[in-house]
Design goal:
Oligomer: single chain
Order of helices and strands: HHHHHHH
Helix content: over 70%
Structural class: mainly alpha
Radius of gyration: 21 Å
């Protein structure tokens, strides 16, 4: 991957990381993560679409400008760079958000879960067990938590998105290397 493509991938990784930060702040400022938690959970679907759309956009941009061989490894590499840069921005922000900006965030999750279980007429002992399990999981985040979140959002998800892009984004000559296509012309 050449320097120009690396810079483009890093730039869009910064945009994605900052978008996640802004989304989290918007959810907090509009109380969609607390008072309007039920509605806010539906908006979380939109944030799932962000990495898909952004990575698709970057891959399509690189292929359209013929600066990029759209091979599977190249697609994965660009996607992983975008995901990793985004993670390096969003993860420290998320720590700041959970510990300083909104340290009560988890109480809303507990409240909402308890309300849902009670509305479903769940047995009281099961409600208590589920809530206690959530509290223990939150307090006992093991030392591999950051590694797990990095693997999921910085590597695995971008790789899956790059594979999905094979269906929707193709070179002008299909999956043939764009360098080969230019030489033949």
């Amino acid at each position: 991957m050449n320097n120009r493509i690396s810079l483009i991938a890093c730039k869009w990784g910064v945009y994605m990381g900052l978008s996640f930060c802004l989304y989290t702040l918007m959810m907090w400022l509009t109380h969609l993560d607390s008072t309007w938690y039920r509605f806010g959970r539906f908006l979380d679907i939109a944030i799932i679409l962000l990495p898909i759309l952004l990575i698709f956009y970057v891959l399509k941009y690189l292929i359209r400008n013929e600066t990029f061989s759209a091979s599977i490894p190249n697609r994965m590499l660009v996607s992983i760079v975008i995901g990793t840069v985004s993670y390096l921005i969003y993860d420290p922000f998320l720590w700041l958000y959970h510990h300083i900006i909104n340290p009560d965030w988890f109480s809303y999750v507990i409240q909402f879960t308890e309300q849902q279980l009670r509305e479903a007429h769940t047995d009281e002992s099961l409600v208590k067990t589920r809530i206690e399990g959530l509290r223990l999981a939150n307090l006992g985040s093991d030392r591999f938590y950051r590694l797990g979140t990095f693997m999921a959002s910085g590597i695995i998800l971008p790789m899956l998105i790059s594979l999905l892009s094979l269906i929707f984004i193709r070179n002008k000559a299909g999956l043939v290397n764009s360098q080969t296509t230019r030489k033949e012309k």
